[in-house]
Design goal:
The chain folds into two domains: about 10-160 and about 325-374, Adenosylhomocysteinase-like (Rossmann fold, 3-Layer(aba) Sandwich); about 165-325, Rossmann fold. Helices cover about 40% and strands about 20% of the residues. It has helices at about 10-15, 35-45, 60-70, 80-100, 110-120, 135-145, 160-180, 200-210, 220-230, 260-265, 285-290, 330-345, 360-374; strands at about 25-30, 50-55, 75, 105-110, 130-135, 150-155, 190-195, 215-220, 235, 245-250, 270-275, 290-295, 300-305, 310-315, 355. The protein starts with 7 loop residues before the first helix and ends with a helix. Bound molecules: nicotinamide-adenine-dinucleotide (NAD). The site of nicotinamide-adenine-dinucleotide has 28 residues, from α6, α7 and α8.
């Protein structure tokens, strides 16, 4: 661990007077990076962690070892097994809490546990005080439940999270650029299509433009299309209008590289996700068209299709920036400071089921600490 790293998180806990909650346990679904290690080790002192399920485990063994040394149970499923593992581990954590008369909170990125709780263990909701969530994806997961039975407090739509979105777009493009360089390609002068012109998509489009690509944008929200036009991007309104991009990137949080889009992509087009899961491209459709797949780079598979085209799928459709260093830790940590503040926001109040964003005044504290310590 970098010992020169400012202690943003410890300082946050001190400034807000975070206290210990001995009768509560945490069930965590998180990435396993050095920044999350700092967060989890700190939070474990205040709300003991029952289990950490690692998302998109990419072999960060030192993080796993450090968590285990702290006495924390860690499981590291492959992406494809994540939902199944969350369900199994949640069953275990609920049972431990019920046996020992403890309460549980969910601490997660992406809404996996809140979904599993409602779909498989609804009768155990009274053991769960609530969930703390970092991403819009997780808020969308809670919103999609027929009946939300617990409170979810989140820092998914704060102003600092929007600022992080800029860095995510930059990380998406820089990870992609690194892969293309490895393969001997230059991105400059190529055409790219970005699907989704939200926080991440807008930053992705700008970052591509800064690297000399010709960028088009598509968004299902017509107002976003106007914004992209005013920002100087070409806007694609129908898949049939796509003009041979060399790269198509999904940053919508939903399926945006649809079957129709895939059918219109030119030969040797790279298919890339900048979101948080593997749902941007219709991978089933791609598989149904594919006659042969072969790896041409550690993070790129060439899909040769029945019609003779070859499409180049990056990181098997998972976010490209999960292939290496993504957003710098010190940026992510202002969000983690917000996440720490969600703990008392959830545990010190008797919240009804519902979705609760972090309050503005709490966000100000995170911003102050970040500027003070940087
Ligand atoms: N890769 C990462 O490290 C990382 C980090 C943060 C967030 N994310 C993820 O990025 C995704 C986008 O986040 P955001 O904050 O930009 O969200 P956002 O809500 O600001 O933007 C999403 C945009 O996509 C548009 N959209 C939705 N469905 C579409 C479709 N089918 N086709 C075209 N456009 C569509 C929406 O209208 C919206 O403008 C989320 O899944 C989020 O979890 C990824």
């Amino acid at each position: 661990m970098n010992t020169f790293h400012p202690d943003f998180l410890g300082e946050t806990a001190r400034r807000i007077g975070l206290k210990r909650y001995p009768n509560v346990r945490q069930f965590v679904v998180q990435h396993l990076y050095p920044d999350t290690l700092r967060l989890l080790l700190l939070l474990h002192d205040f709300v003991a962690i029952e289990c950490v399920v690692g998302i998109g485990y990419s072999g960060n063994e030192s993080v796993v070892d450090a968590l285990k040394r702290a006495g924390i149970r860690v499981v590291t499923p492959a992406f494809a097994d994540l939902e199944h593992t969350v369900r199994e581990e949640l069953a275990r954590a609920l049972s431990v809490c019920q046996t020992n008369n403890l309460k549980l909170i969910l601490h997660e990125v992406g809404g996996y546990a809140i979904k599993a709780l409602h779909e498989h263990f609804a009768e155990a909701c009274e053991t769960v005080i609530g969930a703390i969530e970092v991403t819009k994806q997780g808020v969308w997961a809670a919103q999609s439940l027929p009946e939300l039975r617990i409170p979810q407090v989140n820092c998914a739509q704060t102003r600092l999270k929007e600022i992080e979105g800029k860095m995510v777009g930059e990380a998406v493009v820089s990870s992609l650029d690194n892969i293309l360089r490895d393969m001997g390609y230059a991105v400059v002068g190529r055409a790219a299509l970005v699907n989704g012109y939200g926080w991440v998509g807008k930053a992705t489009a700008n970052s591509l433009r800064q690297r000399g690509l010709r960028v088009s944008v598509n968004d299902c929200d017509i107002i976003k299309c106007v914004e992209a036009t005013v920002d100087g991007f070409a806007v694609v309104r129908q898949p049939s209008d796509i003009e041979s991009p060399a790269i198509v990137i999904g940053a919508s949080g939903r399926e945006s590289i649809s079957a129709q889009v895939i059918d219109n992509l030119p030969d040797r087009c790279f298919i890339v996700s900048g979101a948080s899961k593997n749902h941007e491209a219709d991978l089933d459709h791609l598989a149904s068209l594919t006659v042969r797949t072969r790896p041409i780079h550690r993070h790129v598979d060439a899909h040769t299709l029945k019609d003779g085209r070859t499409l180049l799928l990056v990181n098997k459709g998972y976010p490209v920036n999960f292939t290496g260093s993504s957003v710098p830790d010190e940026i992510v940590e202002f969000l983690f400071a917000e996440l720490i503040m969600l703990v008392p926001a959830l545990l010190d109040h008797d919240l009804e089921p519902g979705i609760y964003p972090l309050k503005d005044e709490h966000e100000q504290i995170a911003a102050q600490i970040w500027l003070d310590l940087r």
